[in-house]
Amino acid sequence: MTHHSPLIRLLRGVLLTLVALFFLFPIFWVLLMSFQTNADILRNPPSLVFSPTLDNYRALIAGQLTGAGSTLELAYTKNIWNSFVLSSGSVLLSLVLGIPAAYAFARFNFRLGENIAFTLLSFRFAPPLLVLLPLLLYFQDLGLYDTYFGLIWVYQLITLPLILWIVRGYFEDVSPDIEYAYRVDGHSWLAAFLKIAVPLARPGIAAAALLAFIFAWNNFVFALILGSSDVQPVTVGALAFITASGIQYGQIAAGLVLSVIPTLILALIAQRYLVEGLSLGVVKG
Q1: pLDDT tens per residue, range 123-134
Q2: CATH code for the domain of 80
């Protein structure tokens, strides 16, 4: 039996809908909380009926965290900007370093090549606390503490291994014969790399860049130890929401929504390039 009955298709659709609702409901609830006051959020029992307000977003944009009779200065928009600079800078540097390295590991067999690749991958899984103390001492001696450049450099421990191993797999799937035929026509090795290998590996590069950006955006420990409030990202800046005067859940929810928007936009943009690259590969295959 090659075709499913309408009943089976209906049950499958219902189950998929329930699974989607199960995973999306927390996000939906946080979004609702961002438009509520603390009184609405703490109401028992919870209710979906409330008067929406933009005060939580106004407080974050204005940089003033309001509590129980007190106001705390909070540079949340600067934290988001710091996250964007650190994540974008680290991913761009990793792409510049990682794409040629991934191509070299995929195309050339050299001594200790696999050992070097595995060592680079191990940096991704090593506990950050293992290197934080010596890094802190080195950063203070070299003047890299509390700088964008210093944190972007350290973020390579997160982004570079990810990009290297994902893109390497895509280069291995590209037939060397295509590049060889291009070079036989008189083109250089560099031209074959830029015009043939990189475009065919574009889906992998886009996926790796997206994942690396998300991991860098979500990093907490490196920025907490190696930077002050001037360069700290949104993950560290969120600690300011916990105050002695109480917890403003609505402003926390608004902060979560604002912190998710950049990665969501990037994911939508990358999805378009992923589909384009995969379609191109199907046509050429």
Answers
A1: 777 777 778 888
A2: 1.10.3720.10
